[in-house]
Amino acid sequence: MDLPLFLLIFGLASVAMLVPAVHGGTVRNIDTARMFFYSGILGLTLFSLIAIALAGRRPKHGALGTLLSLFSTFVFLPAFLAVPFFEGLGTTTYVNAYMEMVSAITTTGATLFVDPERLDTTLHLWRAQVGWMGGAVMWIAASAILAPLNLGGFEVTAQAEPGQREALSSLIGRADPRERLLRVSSALLPIYIGLTALLWVLLMISGDASLVALCHAMAVMATSGISPVGGIEFSGSGITGEALALLFMFFALSRLTFSSDTITATQGGLRTDPEFRLGLVFILGVPLILFARHWLGAFDVAAEDDLTQAGRALWGSIFTVMSFLTTTGFASDYWAQTQAWSGLETPGLILMGLALIGGGVATTAGGVKLLRVFALYLNGLREMERLVHPSSVSGAGTDARRLQRNGAFIAWIFFMLFALTLAALTILLALLDVSFENALVLSIAGLSTTGPLISLAADEPILLTELSTGAKAVFCAAMVLGRLETLAIIALLTPDLWRS
I need a surface site. Which of 30, 53, 238, 418 has the fewest CB within 10 A? Predict the structure, then answer.
């Protein structure tokens, strides 16, 4: 493990605990504020002692060491983050608190506390803040950790094998991992913080309470879907707030929306970016199909002339499709009206499919990623062309040049690993007394880091508190696997890469 990096993250998390401590003192949640203050001071003390002991030592494992630190951030750091949450709430088990923090820091957003009233405002702020910090970690790690190792979607465009460093890269080079992390952090953190603050202000202007606006702003930027009121549909900003949130969700469709610091950004701007264009196809195409289906269903209930209801149904589809494609998981206030208008239900399978596709490479979104889907799409077109013209030679257009020669093959390997992992997790959960349907939904929610699926995709909302300890452990593993991806875990388990 690159201990200095993990230690730095641990220290920053300790400092972050002072924010809910100050908030709790301000709103008079004194007991909760005290727990965060004590935990923050304890963390800073441990950080100082270990930093003094390790002063002058250099990490030995380079890029793979930083990848192990990233793994530790999602597995071991929540054990510390859960302490003030567990002590502040006082009516839950430590296992539940740990699971809640894993869900937050992986930006999954699945919660055991369905009733928002059970948590005070300080604990709601902490959940949203942990999710926001997890999103910031992924923004930075994509360029500073995953890109040098050709993981996280970069393997589709890079010229080296997944898990190995690329020999030639003017963007990445062979800089010291710590220097690269510092450079990337100084470039991206101001953008991340500035966009969050801007959305926070806009949501407050639209009618949201300050805390609700802040939590929703952090949830949108991190694609965590964490809400202190049970969802954006219960906020006070209405359709204006949803429109603002949708606008900022575009940052999860492509890295080019906020940065050009990775190898995926070398072939032009947004106008020619295949991820962004493919995302737009889903955002516009799926709602239109849903709208047409419900429009036909409205004839049976003589509601086809209600244009106001039809417009709300269309907006509800657009927003919800965008939200689940970016793995945020917010449902529009008009999503229910989409079904009420025609009397037809919208299958949860559509939401699960969108979440599995996911957003862009090197963003906070989870899922398979749009670039991999695009690589498979191009390969499918080429194979159909060869059926007609077996001896044809493909011309590398501007889109194809973005991918390496074996990009589709590597994308297919990842897709099969993803499918096998999904099957294994579903079987494990089923063996732990979870019904097959719920096991499938839980597995997809974890691997795609789209926690709100457990409330919307199944026939009945899945209550995480009713799961056994073993099932909770499997779901935590699914969330970590979904955040880091299977190829990264394989890279960590390969001895040859550590010796290289």
Answer: 53
Q: What is the DSSP letter of 469?
A: H
What angle separates helix 3-16 from helix 177-205, to the nearest 10 degrees?
Answer: 20
Q: For 406-435, what is the HEC assignment? A: CHHHHHHHHHHHHHHHHHHHHHHHHHCCCC
Its pTM stands at 0.91
Cβ neighbours of residue 299 closer than 8 Å, sequence gap 6 or more: none
Quickly list H helices, 206-334: 210-222, 238-249, 274-300, 307-325
Tell me which amino acid residue 34 is: R
Q: Is-contact 239 252, C-beta < 8 A?
A: no
User: pLDDT tens digits, residue range 67-78?
Assistant: 888 999 999 999
Neighbouring C-alpha atoms within 13 Å toward the C-beta of 54:
15
Interatomic CA distance for residues 205 and 207, integer angstroms: 5
Amino acid 44 reads L
Q: Which two tokens stand for residue 61?
A: 């494992």
- Summarised one tens digit per residue, pLDDT across range 48-68 is 999 888 877 766 656 678 888
What tens digit of pLDDT does each residue of 125-135 get?
999 999 999 99
Closest to 148 in 3D by CA, of 166, 170, 125: 166
Of 339, 340, 322, give the one whose Cα is nearest residue 331: 322
Q: What is the CA radius of gyration of the chain?
A: 23
Provide the residue count of the chain: 500
Give the C-alpha separation, 325 to 478, whole Å: 19
Cβ distance 248 to 326 under 8 Å? no
Separation of alpha carbons 208 and 202, rounded Å: 9
